[in-house]
C-alpha cells in the first residue's frame, strides 16, 4: 500500500485501485433490507444487508449497466425483488431466491426503473436518440404485455417518482439547448388504472420557468406533498407542493445547495421521514455536505453522526423508524455505505458503517486535511481547497493545481486518493472551484456562461499567483492538471504563459470546440450553447477558445492521456496537441489506452496512469 519515496513513505500506484466499487444503495422498505451494487476482484452483483441479524448475502450478476447518457439509475428494489437494467433489457431478481427473469427487451437503452402498484408494474426511462426524445414507459413485471408509453413531452427525463397509491407520477424534464441544471420542470401526471394500462387524466408542471432548474421530486408517505429542489431563489432550496390544496411553499432559506448537477441518473439528496412531517436532506455549503432534518412546520436541525464524513452523495430512508442509508466519504474515510439511527437522543445519530470501498488505503495515517481558501480573480472571489504537503524534500515544496471537469461541477471535502498520492510525495495540492462551479449558488455557476475558456483559465492562472504568496512553495515547480473540460482549462492556461507553470498533465482534454459540438454525444450536444454561444453563430469564439488552434504557443512539458473509445471527446483532441509538441521538440508523453472511454476503468491502466505521472513529475520538476 505504501512505498519508500525519496526516504519517505508514499501511497503507491497500486493502492489507487479500489478493492470494491459501489453503485447505488437503496432500502427495500417492505423487507427492511439494504441493497447495493458492488464490483470487486471476484466479480459483480448485489449485496444485501439485513439489520435484524447483521448478515450479508450476495447475488452474482455481471451485466448490471444503465448507460443512458453517463449512466446511473441501474436498479430499484421493493417487495423483496430487484429490478435492474442491462443496456436495453429490464431484469427481475428475487432477494431471497436469486432467480433472474427477463422482463423486457426494448429498442432503446433503459434506466431508472421504479416498482409500482404492489410489485405488479414497473416504470422506467428509455433514452432518446438524435431525432427523438426520452420516453417514460410502463411495463408489466411479468413481461407478458408490450410496454406502454406514458410520457414523451421532453427531450430528456430523469428522477421519476410515484406516490404510494401508484396513480401519480412526477419527474424532471428538460429540453434543448438546456442542461438539467440550466432549466428543468417538474412534470406531474395523474393516472387512472385500467388493468393492463394507465390512462392519463390530468397533468401539471411545477416551476416551468426557463430561468430555473429543478431536482428530485419525491412524494411524502401520506401522499400529500411533493418535495423537490429548485434554484429560483439563487440557491438550490427545497420546496413543497401541496397536492391536496394545489399550492407551493418554500421550505428552506439557507443560501446552501440541496442538489448537485445531475450528470447521471438516480441521484438522490432528499428522503421523507416515515411520518411525512419532515424531510432529510443533503446540504452542501463551503464544499462540505451535511444531513439536515427539515420539518414541514419549519423546525430544522443538523444530523451529526461522524465529523470525519464530509461528503454525502445519496440518501434513503427505510420508511419505518427513520433509519437513514447514505453513501458517504471524508478526507480519511473512503466511500462507504452507512446506516444512521436518527431516533437516538439529541441531534447525534448512532451509525454503522456496513461497507467501504478502500478500507486498506485508510490505514495510511498521514493524510492531509483540506483548508478552505479564497482568492481574487478579475475582481471576483474564487474558491478552492488547499492540501499541505505531508513533508518537504527540499526547502520548498512543489505544487499541483487541479481543476475539475464538467465544467459544471465542484471539488468537495471528500475522499481524494489522487490528492493524497501527491501530498504523500511532498506536493502541495490546490483544488480550484473556478467561476462556473456548482455549490456556491446559481449566480456563481452562471458566471461561466458565454465565458468558458476565459474565466476558468483566468481562475487557474490566478490560483498560481495565489500560491506565489505561500513561502513554503517553490513557484518554479508548479504543475497544472485536469481532465475533460478541466484538461481544456489547463491547456488554455499553458498558452502564452511561459514561465508560469513548469508542466501540464491532461486526460482526455477538449481541444477543438467545433469538433466537440459536431461529434459529442446527445446529452451534451447543446451544452456549449450556454458556455460559449450557439454554433455556428459564434464560430469565431469557438475557434478562439480551442486549445488546438493555439497549440504552438505551449512551451512546457506535457503529459497526455486518452482512451481510444472515448465517445464524448475524440482521441483526436489529444493528437492535435501531441503533433504540435512533436514538431517543435517540446518534451511530451502521450499515452492512449485501448478499450477505454471518457475516464479510465481498467485496473492495469489506472496503475500505469499514476506510475507515468510519478515518473513525469520526477523528470521535469
What does this structure look like?
The protein has 621 residues and is mainly β. The protein is 14% helix and 40% strand. It has nine helices and 38 strands. The strands form nine sheets. An eight-stranded mixed β-sheet has the order 31-32-34-33-35-36-37-38, with helices on both faces. Strands 3-4-5-6 form a four-stranded antiparallel β-sheet, with no helix packed on it. It has a four-stranded antiparallel β-sheet with strand order 7-8-9-10, with no helix packed on it. Strand 37, helix 8 and strand 38 (588-593) form a beta-alpha-beta unit.
Short overview:
This protein has 621 residues and is mostly beta strands. The chain is built from nine helices and 38 strands.
Mean pLDDT: 93
Structural class: mainly beta
Low-confidence stretches: none
Shape by Cα distribution: globular
Radius of gyration: 24 Å
User: What is the count of DSSP helices, taking H or I runs of 4+ residues?
Assistant: 9
- Which CATH architecture of the largest domain would you pick? 3-Layer(aba) Sandwich
CATH class of the largest domain: Alpha Beta
Number of strands: 38
What share of residues are in beta strands?
35-45%
Measured between the Cα atoms of the first and last residue, the distance is: 25 Å
Which sequence of strands runs across the widest sheet? 31-32-34-33-35-36-37-38
